[in-house]
Amino acid sequence: MSPAGCSHVNGYKVDNWKQNLRVIYQCFVWSGTAETRRRKAKSCICHMCGAHLNRLHSCLYCVFFGCFTKKHIHEHAKNKRHNLAIDLLYGGIYCFVCQDYIYDKDMEQIAKEEQRKAWKLQGIGEKYTTWEPTKRELELLRHNPKRRKITTNCTI
Questions:
Q1: Secondary element (H or E) of residue 138
Q2: Keyword Hydrolase, does the record have it (predicted)?
Q3: Is 85 helix (H, G, I), strand (E, B) or coil?
């Protein structure tokens, strides 16, 4: 995979892809409300064997759920040439061409936003998130490379 990420994701990023991805996260991955959790429990079954388990993934191009463990989602991807699927437990995006879970900054942002919304709806509140510097903070860091030593193994 190139440093810029998976190039196959560009084929998915057309038309209403952001809205579609948000709906998938809301309804089938994090399910913030009782209603979406019920819908997920009823509808998230493998379309080939009917199982609820076996690392269920959903095709990002159509409404197909398939087992990752039994390779049902792999068969779908090969037959339909639908190269991307989402893990319904953790929300990771899998590329069947790269044969790996991929990282895409835009998709990751949507995932984080929807996960925060789900936590809020469930009354969990904010969980720890890693610091991601803004453009302004990155610029400040570039212009101020000098670091202060606080202790022998800690610098600012």
A1: helix 135-143
A2: yes
A3: strand
Give helix then strand counts, H and E, for the chain: 5, 7
d(CA 13, CA 10): 5
CB 91 within 8 A of CB 119: no
Percent of the chain surpassing pLDDT 70: 87
Among candidate residues 74, 80, 79, the one with its CA nearest the CA of residue 57? 74
125 vs 122: CA distance, rounded Å: 8
Cα 120 to Cα 37, 52, 125: the distances in Å are 15, 26, 5
- pLDDT tens figures, 88-117: 988 999 999 999 999 898 998 899 888 888
Q: Name the DSSP letter for residue 77.
A: H
| Amino acid identity for residue 83 in this structure | N
Nearest to 88 by CA among 19, 28, 43, 48: 28
Calculate ∠ Cα 122-89-77, nearest 5°.
140
- CA neighbor of 94 nearest in space, from 8, 2, 4: 8
> Which pTM does this prediction carry?
0.73
Element at 38 (helix H, strand E): helix 34-43
